[in-house]
Amino acid sequence: MIGLKRGTVKLVPHNPKWSVLFEDEKQLLKNTFGNIIISIEHIGSTAIPDIPAKPIIDMNIGVESLEIARSMKEKFEKLGYEYRPFVPGHTKEELKWQELYVKGPEANRTHHAHVTVYGNNYWKNDLLFRDYLRKNSVRAKQYAELKTELVEKHADDRGTYTKNKEQFINDTLEMARKDSPLTEGQIKYLATIPDEKKMIVKPFNPRGLDIANQVIANIKSVEPNLEVLLLGSLPLKISGQEDIDISAFCIKSEQPKHFDNFKKLFGEPTRQGKNSIGWDFEKDGFSVSVWLTDPTAETTKAQVEVFNLLKNNPELLREYEKIKEEAKDLSYKEYQRRKYEFYNRILKEFAAGVKIQ
Question: Please, which residues bridge with residue 243 across strands?
C-alpha cells in the first residue's frame, strides 16, 4: 500500500486508506513527542483525492523552533526514522526551513516527516497548495498530468522530477493566493490555532448582557468620552461561546493617553495588535475581551460593518447562527475558517451594492 525505493519515482492511483495511515502515524508521533508538537498535517499528493501519488505519506510537523526539530532526532530514530540533512533536488537554502526525518529502509521508504516552525511560510505554502488542489479539480488534474509526464522521463531521478514541478507549484500558489476567500491576516491567525482546539457552542445567555454592561460602565466611569461598543454574538442574542467582546474606540496615536486608565481597570494587557491593545479575563463564568482599538483600521471597520449587517438583516443573522450551530462537531479552526468566509462574502456583497436582507 505504501513504500518506495529511495531516489526513485513511481506513481500509483490514489488510495483512500492513505488518510487512515496518516492518522495512525500522527497519533504515534503525538504519543511519542507530546506537547512538543503543535500540529501535524497530511501534505503532498497522498493528501489530495483522485490524483496519483508516490506511495509515501508526507507530513508537516509544526514545532516552535528548528532547534526543537533537531532535538527530536533520538526519539524519531527509536520510531524507525532516519535523519536526512540532505534531500536530492533541494539546495541547502531550500532546506533551511525544515528538518527531514524519513521512515523505512532505503528500499522501501514509507513516511517523510518534515519538521518545521509552525505557521511559517514553508508551513503555510504546503497547506495552501494542498487545500487549493483539494478544492479545484481542474488544477489537480493538470498536476496529475504533469506528474505522469515527468515520471516517464525521470523515474530513477527523484531530484530532477521534483525540480521540474517547481514552476507548476509556484504558479498554483499564486493562483491560490488570488483566489483565497480569506485575507492574509485571517490565514495567519488560523495558522496559530491548534488542531485539537474544539468549538464550544452554548445558547444565548442574557446574564452575559448584565456582565457586559457592568464592564462598559466601568470603562465609561474613567473614559466618558470614548465610544464603547459591545460586539459579537451576545448583543445579537444568538448562540455563542459565552464570551463578551467589548471595543473602546480610539485612534492609535491617542491610545497611550488612555492606556493607564485601562491598566488600572484590567491590569497588564494580554494581547497587542497592530492597531489595538487587548485585555482578556474571566468574569462570573464568562470570557471577557476588552479592546482599545483604532476605529480607522480596516480590520476594525470590517468588524463593525459585519456586526451592523447582522444586526439589521434577520436572514443573514439566521445564516450566521446556523454556522455556529453546525460548528458543534467541528474544530475551532474550521469554525473560524467558515466564519471568516461568511464575513468576507457579506462584506463583498455589501460593497458591491448587493441587496442583503
Answer: 287
pLDDT tens digits, residue range 93-119? 666 789 999 999 999 999 999 999 988
Exposed/middle/buried for residue 93 (C-beta within 10 Å: 0-12, 13-18, 19+): exposed
Q: Which amino acid is at 5?
A: K
Q: Which residue has the cell 525540480?
A: 163
Domains and CATH numbers, the chain: 17-180 (3.30.460.10), 207-351 (3.30.460.10)
How does pLDDT run across 163-193, given as a tens digit for each residue?
899 999 999 998 888 777 788 788 878 888 8
Length of the chain: 357
Q: CB count, 10 Å around CB of 213?
A: 12
Cα–Cα distance for residue pair 133/146, rounded to 1 Å: 14
* C-alpha cell, 258: 488612555
Residue 251 neighbours by CB distance under 10 Å: 12
